[in-house]
Amino acid sequence: MKGAIVMNMGLYFQIDVVEVMVNSLTWFLIVYFAYRIRKKKSLVIPMWKIMVVVIIGLFSFSLELNFFETPFRFALLPLGVWLLYWFKGNKERWERYRIFAWLGFGANLLFLLATLISIPIHAGLYPSNKPDTYMANISKAALIHIHPSAKEQELDKKALSQQLSQLEQDTVYSEEWHQDTYMNADLNKRRERFPYQLIGVASKWGSGLSPIIYLEEDGKGLLISTSKEQYYFRSKDSIFLRKGE
Amino acid sequence: MRKKLVWVTIGIALIVLLFIYLFFFSKPTPFPTQEQLIEEMNQFFPEARAATIQESISIDERHTLVPFISETGDYGLSYWVWQKRNWRVDRIDTKGGPMVWEINSRKPSSYYFVWNINPNHFLQTIDFFMIRERGYRVIDGKETYYPRIQLKTNVSLQDQSYGVLPLPEDWVTVTESFLKVSPPAQKDFFFNQLFPDQHLFFGWSAYDRLGNVSFPTELNGNSFSNGKLNIDYVLILNEENLEQP
Question: ipTM of the predicted structure?
Fold first, then answer.
């Protein structure tokens, strides 16, 4: 079940190396457990049949809850085990396979633990408060004007790379920014505080992050939007190309 | 005997594969003649009462837009797709107010504005927009600010009542960044939620010869679709819906 999700993500999202590693490790453990049980009970069932039973056993009715902005799947009803019992054939066959069906269901717990373990590892490798987690490679960086109030500005990549290490994190003043925009009495004349989007920026390899990065009108503020949270960084100098340069 | 059986099996498998290939992946045949198109359209949706085909605009090898005029003088659109070894009409709009045809929902570079507007409305130009409303959110002390996105492009209706326009490059980039950042809970493609959370939408406004905003009231016709296509509506925008710098 989990494997399918990872494959889906591969089409679309950057690879989350931590997730891939932890999941591979979990699958390795499952195969290892199956192998040990088979050996201990001296069963002569081929491994591939055992793995089919394990994978069907994984299938469950589960509850997905979000903690730390991460979805956790709690397996509640062993649908796969029931399905296998339904098609068990004779009793002796079920006796032989039963433990592997339950191993499959139990593997849901392993995946839950894997998710839990991956959070601190990911946070350690890719700290969320460090700008270079989101902007590891800026060689193809460019600006898009996303609002009519954007000025004809170009990105100064050199300035951006110089500023990167000196960016300081600040609070996302969401409500204030929103209200500031509407201070202007004129109904249609509006300036967007973040009228530029910074594109062509690669996040740190293996982080699995593909944030949206907005640039403030003064060229000094970066608002980084991930699927989980927003981060706001300020630089001392503008990263716009100075006019005449 | 055994060997013979194997060869027969391989032979059958190859023939089946060949048929599947021919059925699903074959190169499209030439597009049907105008008479055939009209006949099929009126069969698919009798209310369309198609009388004249204006043009067959090939969007790609397997997708063609056919603007048409009805017996009653309405300017409509029909959407044709090559599938199962046939050119089939999947949707008809009796009046061709702008729509966005998403050939492949996951690929914004395959989104097209399509329109066919009755010249009797005396529209000169159309502005197309892609907008995301400004907003903010404070949940559990986590602040999120969504800058307003307002992108604009422009087409002329002077020479032709109809047209096809791919999303401009910047729009594609912005839309892609939205697709990539979608939160983990919404990675499930079964729901096919294109713009989760803070969504992007398309809009348009039209101008007459003098440059005044003009919206023909009778642009809403009927549509008939077999539900296979992904079509986005394009909302009519007034001055109040748009921001000026």
Answer: 0.83
